[in-house]
Amino acid sequence: MGCSDRGLTAVSQLNPGDFDWPIIFGNENGAKWFHTGGIFAALSTSTSQVAAEAMDAARLHATPVSYDLNYRDSLWKSIGGKAKAQDVNRELLRKVDLLLGNEEDFSAMLGVQLKGVSEDFTELPVAAYEDMLREVAGLYPNLKLIASTLRTASTASRNAWGAIALCEDKIVHVPQHYNDIYDRVGGGDSFASGLIYGLLADKPIDWALRCGVAHGALAKTTPGDTSTATLAEVERLMKGGTVRIAR
User: Fold this and answer.
1) Tell me: the pLDDT tens digits for 24-72?
2) Global pTM?
3) Ordered strands of the 158-167 beta sheet
4) Do residues 164 and 46 make contact, with C-beta atoms less than 8 angstroms apart?
C-alpha cells in the first residue's frame, strides 16, 4: 500500500543552496549518476529549482542525469496545474541525458501526443511509440536516450509489460509479455533503476532495456514499491525464466 500524501514533507521544503553539490559530484567517491523526476519537481514551488541546480552541478562534473516524467495531477494542481508542469519540465529537460516515462507522461508533461491508439490503450502499436519518441528527440536534441514503458492492463492482476527506447537514432524494443501482478506500484521506478544499472555497468542498450523490463516485472510480484529482487533473479528472467522470485 502506498501513500502519495507528500505535503509538507521535509524534502518538499528544500531550496537552492541547501546541498554542497561539488562535494556530492566532484570527488572520486562522489555520485556516479543523478536521477530525479516530475514527482520531486512538483512537491513545492522550490523543488524544481533544486532539481535544476542539481542537474547543472552534475553536468559540470560529467555525471549523467536521468529524469522520470511521472506526471501526478494531484501534486501539480496546487502550484499551477498542467500548464505549470509543462513549463517546468520543458526547461528541466534541456539539462537531461536520459528521459523516462509512459505515453500519458509525455502527453501531460510535454504536450507530445501518442497517435493511433484507442482511449483504453488495449493495443500499443510500436510505430506510434517510435514516432512519439522521435518527436521528443526533435524537441530536445540534448537527450541521449528516451525510453517508454509499454503496459497493457487486461485485468488488475494481469498486465502485459515491455518497453521501447530511442538511442543514437535507433529504436530498441522489448516486446510485451504477460505477468501476474501482486502490487503494481513501483514497477516504473524498478524499470528505471534496472535500465540505469545496465548503463552504469556498460552493458549494451538492448541489455539495459531488458534489465529494466525484467526488474519492473519482478517488482510487481511483491508488495510495496521497493524492489526486493536480486541481480541473479533479474538475469534469470532476462534469460527466459519465470517471473516468480526464487527464495
Assistant:
1) 999 888 999 999 999 999 999 999 999 999 999 999 999 999 999 999 9
2) 0.90
3) 34-37, 65-68, 98-101, 145-155, 158-167, 170-180
4) no
205: phi then psi, degrees, rounded to nearest 5: -60, -35
Is the backbone of residue 173 left (phi > 0), alpha (psi -120 to 50) or beta?
beta
> 8 — phi, psi (to 5°)?
65, 15
What is the phi/psi pair of residue 86, to 5°? -70, -40
CB 197 within 8 A of CB 234: no
Distance, CA of 146 to chain centre = 10
Taking the domains of the chain in order of start, what are their residue ranges? 17-96, 116-241
Ordered DSSP codes for the chain: ------TT-GGGG--TTSS-HHHHHHSTTS-S-EEEEHHHHTSSTTHHHHHHHHHHHHHHTT--EEEE----HHHHTTTTHHHHHHHHHHHHGGG-SEEEE-HHHHHHHH-PPPPS--TT-----HHHHHHHHHHHHHH-TT-SEEEEEEEEEEETTEEEEEEEEEETTEEEEEEEEEEE-S--TTHHHHHHHHHHHHHHTT--HHHHHHHHHHHHHHHTTSSSSS----HHHHHHHHTT--SSPP-
Q: If one looks up domain 116-241 in CATH, what number appears? A: 3.40.1190.20
Question: Taking the alpha carbons of 10, 13, 19, 25 in that order, is the dihedral positive or negative?
Answer: positive
